[in-house]
């Protein structure tokens, strides 16, 4: 096994800042929300409810049902 030693005379370059967490996921979410059209505000309120309730789906059922009904109305058009 070789022993690796650092060169004390070498300059260390600062590492580039890390990319924002889940930036690609956020971009994808934006596109998905746009596709929901008139249901997008219901979707976003469901997301808020899930965050506020620590992802407790049972406590957000009113939001789930409202989004489901909106989606079903869109599909009938």
TrEMBL record:
<protein>
    <recommendedName>
        <fullName>CHCH domain-containing protein</fullName>
    </recommendedName>
</protein>
<dbReference type="Pfam" id="PF06747">
    <property type="entry name" value="CHCH"/>
</dbReference>
<feature type="region of interest" description="Disordered">
    <location>
        <begin position="1"/>
        <end position="32"/>
    </location>
</feature>
<keyword id="KW-1015">Disulfide bond</keyword>
<dbReference type="InterPro" id="IPR009069">
    <property type="entry name" value="Cys_alpha_HP_mot_SF"/>
</dbReference>
<feature type="domain" description="CHCH">
    <location>
        <begin position="39"/>
        <end position="72"/>
    </location>
</feature>
<dbReference type="InterPro" id="IPR010625">
    <property type="entry name" value="CHCH"/>
</dbReference>
<feature type="compositionally biased region" description="Low complexity">
    <location>
        <begin position="1"/>
        <end position="13"/>
    </location>
</feature>
